[in-house]
Amino acid sequence: MVNRPASAVEWARSFVAPALKEGSVAVDATAGKGNDTLFLAESVGSTGKVFAFDIQEQALQKTREKLHLAGVADRVVLLMENHRQMKNFISLPLDAVMFNLGYLPGSDRSVVTEPANTVEAMVSALEMLSAGGRMSVVVYTGHPGAAAEARSVAVLAATLDSSFTVLKTTFWNGPLHSPKIYFFARAGEAFENLPAEKNS
Question: pLDDT tens digit string along 85-103?
Answer without folding.
Answer: 999 999 999 999 999 987 5
